[in-house]
Amino acid sequence: MSEAGSLWGLFISSFLASTLLPGGSEGVLVWLHQQQAASTFSLLLVATLGNTLGGMTSWGIGYWL
């Protein structure tokens, strides 16, 4: 799997796990780190971005509903 594909997969997993769908993006993060799919900094940055944007989306849905 390419580095970009790995990071997009992690972002989507993190985003969905922090919005409507239950799931553990941590498992994806650990697996990608073990596979050395990208640098540790890139993995943490993308996971943080996905979780943060997912949380903001959940807040927005709750606010507007």
Give the oligomeric state.
Answer: single chain
Major beta-sheet overview? none
How confident is the prediction overall: mean pLDDT? Answer: 93
The helical percent reads: over 70%
Shape: elongated
Distance between the termini: 39 Å
Number of helical elements: 3
The low-pLDDT segments are none
Backbone CA Rg: 12 Å
Query: What share of residues are in beta strands?
Result: under 5%
Give the strand tally. Answer: 0
Structural class: mainly alpha
Total domain modules: 1
Order of helices and strands: HHH
Question: Which short descriptors sum up this protein?
Answer:
65 residues; mainly alpha; 3 helices; 0% strand
In words, what does this structure look like?
With 65 residues, this protein is an all-alpha fold. It has one domain. The protein is built from three helices and no strands. The chain is elongated and about 40 Å long. The relative contact order is 0.21. The model has no long low-confidence stretch (mean pLDDT 93).
